[in-house]
Amino acid sequence: MDQALSLWFLLGWIGGDSCNLIGSFLADQLPLQTYTAVYYVLADVLMLSLYFYYKFKKRPSPWSAPINSLLLFILGVACTTPLLRSAGSVAAPREVFQGRTLLSVEPGNKPFTKKEIIGFVIGSVSSALYLFSRLPQIRTNFLRKSTQGISYSLFALVMLGNTLYGLSVLLKNPEEGQSEGSYVLHHLPWLVGSLGVLLLDTIISVQFFMYRHATPSSERQPLLPG
């Protein structure tokens, strides 16, 4: 696992998911977005824990303790953010999902609050991390000329999940008095983060097809010198 997966891919992924969680909370995104962001961070912490476990299993490192502390901190943030969101929305009316309507009064633009602007910026950072996180993994696959050690189900389900995630945001009806353009603008970083990585995940899918019968270069080296 520590050879097949790029560490920068995992770090970019957990960084993007962490920013996604914080940005969704601050920018008052849909509850579905916050809950899935919590799940993503928990899954990332588990994946990183497995990575460093196999990495340092036979090679103890002084970095293991700080890394474990950082993972525990991220885990704590992921668990407490939904609680803060629930506590802050007790007095607010519960928002019900509504599909798009064909006939409606001409709406206007919804202004950004200061809290939403901070969340929008953090969400934009999340989108950038999502996009750049794929590049190290594409490079690792190219250098190894193999995708062995990586589960294609991971990327296939991520592609399916991001597609449905983006569609769920697009198909929701804007708030009363809000134009569709303003609605898309408020959710733009999350749409770019979910739908924008589909192209890069498609490249990784092509690599799975190209290298499906290949053997990693490290395994092709002879055990004894000729």
UniProtKB/TrEMBL annotation:
It is found in: Membrane. The chain crosses the membrane at residues 37-54, 66-84, 117-133, 154-171, 191-211. InterPro entries: LAAT-1, PQ-loop_rpt. The keyword Transmembrane applies. The keyword Transmembrane applies. Its main location: membrane. Keywords: Membrane, Transmembrane, Transmembrane helix. Belongs to the laat-1 family. This is Lysosomal amino acid transporter 1 homolog isoform X4. The gene is SLC66A1.
